[in-house]
Design brief:
The protein has 14 helices and 13 strands. The protein is α/β, with parallel strands linked by helices. The strands form 3 sheets. A 7-stranded mixed beta sheet has the order 3-9-8-7-6-4-5, sandwiched between helices. A 3-stranded mixed beta sheet has the order 1-2-11. The chain has a 3-stranded antiparallel beta sheet with strand order 10-13-12, with helices on one face. The longest helix has 20 residues. About 50% of the residues are buried. The structure holds pyridoxal-5'-phosphate (PLP). Pyridoxal-5'-phosphate binds next to helix 4.
Length: about 400
């Protein structure tokens, strides 16, 4: 049965997006994700918008491990973890994640979105309080909303004075929680972990860091934001994705003390009511992490590429803030203009996405350049040439 009110308001919304140039096109790619991809109807372009930071999404050994996993364990468990959904490959990926993150234990989920939504409502209680950075990823925001009965506050982005003020206001709470991205996905800046750790110690708060864009990128060996600051093992709870630098397929995790993981196994709803990570991904992501452990030169290559692209953009007159991350935002302001500029770059052979509202606040649209270790010098030269023409 058609519902005329729903249909009318949906058509109105979609029409508005089309008319104002904010329409998102789902470009079809005909090749695997690499330094370049073939886009249907456009041709080969240099890829500067994927999270394939270490170039492992199409690595032959990562693919081979996925195929072996598929053959050994089948397409899936047809079950959640606690029924018959735990295969040896799940223990193996979780031990590997814990080793890499430097935590006693880890638990996998089908995405980091799920990992965040598993953690926050399960770990927090009605007499706790949560403090969340205002620029945290949507999955953290939604995860905090799911806590419902727990008091929540948002502190200004990376503003430690504001956080401290708010922590003071929550002194009477049973447990204080502070949650932040390690690397902020739209700004490309890094959370000030040393100050966060210090504040959390002083106010006896539990620090949760989602390092989805930090892992594989920051630190000499790619162990992420904690390694960047020399704070490995000092963050209470880490969450992250396997869908970016660690193979790029999908999957997420919580890495923490064993009792935290045990609590999540017993109680977290995405774990209790949703299927396990497919074996294909458990095996391919594990191989990806092993490659990062064995080949820190990939991380060094990424750091070199980040510097080359950031320096090159600056020389061309683009304003790029200083940051060690692989995310370089170029602020434009107007959403339609950011989208138009990204289209022009595509015509020039480089794929950079323009982000506008509601992904970023109104008036703060930007082009987001993302760097990969897979890019060689010729890709970087092609990309900078396109920016010069833009
Ligand atoms: C900080 C952060 N957390 C979580 C996610 C979601 O990761 P996944 O794709 O594994 O759900 C992202 C992805 O953009 C992210 O940037």
């Amino acid at each position: 049965m058609p519902n005329t009110r729903f249909d009318a308001r949906t058509q109105e919304l979609l029409g508005g997006l089309r008319d104002s140039g904010q329409w998102k096109h789902l470009q079809q790619i005909t090749t695997p994700i690499g330094p370049t991809v073939e886009v249907e109807g456009i041709g080969e372009v240099v890829l500067l918008c994927s999270n394939n930071y270490l170039g492992l999404a199409n690595h032959p050994k990562v693919i081979e491990a996925g195929i072996e996993g598929l053959k050994q364990y089948g397409a899936g468990t047809a079950s959640v973890r606690f029924i018959c959904g735990t295969q040896q490959c799940h223990r193996a990926i979780e031990e590997t994640i814990a080793r890499f993150a430097g935590t006693p234990a880890a638990l996998s989920y089908v995405s980091c979105w799920n990992a965040n939504e598993a953690l926050m409502p399960t770990a927090t209680d009605a007499d706790d309080a949560i403090l969340s950075d205002e620029l945290n990823h949507a999955s953290i925001i939604d995860a905090c909303r799911l806590t419902r009965k727990t008091e929540r506050a948002v502190y200004k982005h990376n503003d430690m004075a504001d956080l401290e003020e708010k922590l003071k206001g929550f002194r009477d709470k049973a447990v204080r929680w502070v949650i932040t991205d390690g690397v902020f996905s739209m700004e490309g800046d890094v959370a000030p972990l040393p100050q966060l750790v210090e504040l959390c110690r002083e106010y006896e708060a539990i620090l949760v860091v989602d390092d989805s864009h930090g892992v594989g990128v920051l630190g000499a060996t790619g162990r992420g934001t904690p390694e960047h600051y020399g704070l490995m093992g000092q963050i209470d709870i880490m969450t992250g994705t396997l869908g970016k630098s660690l193979g790029g397929a999908a999957g997420g995790y919580v890495a923490a003390q064993r009792h935290v993981v045990e609590l999540l196994v017993q109680r977290s709803r995405p774990g209790l009511f949703s299927n396990a990570l497919p074996a294909t991904i458990a095996c391919s992501a594990r191989r990806a992490i092993e490659i990062v452990e064995r080949e820190p030169q990939r991380v060094a290559r990424l750091h070199g590429n980040v510097k080359a692209i950031r320096d090159g953009l600056r020389k061309l007159g683009f304003e790029c803030a200083d940051s060690p991350t692989a995310i370089i935002p170029i602020h434009i302001g107007d959403t339609a203009e950011a989208i138009a500029k990204s289209r022009r770059l595509m015509e020039l052979g480089v794929w950079v996405v323009g982000f506008g509202f509601p992904v970023v606040p109104q008036g703060q649209a930007r082009l987001r350049v993302q760097v990969s270790a897979a890019l060689d010098d010729s890709h970087i030269a092609r990309a900078l040439d396109a920016f010069a023409k833009l």
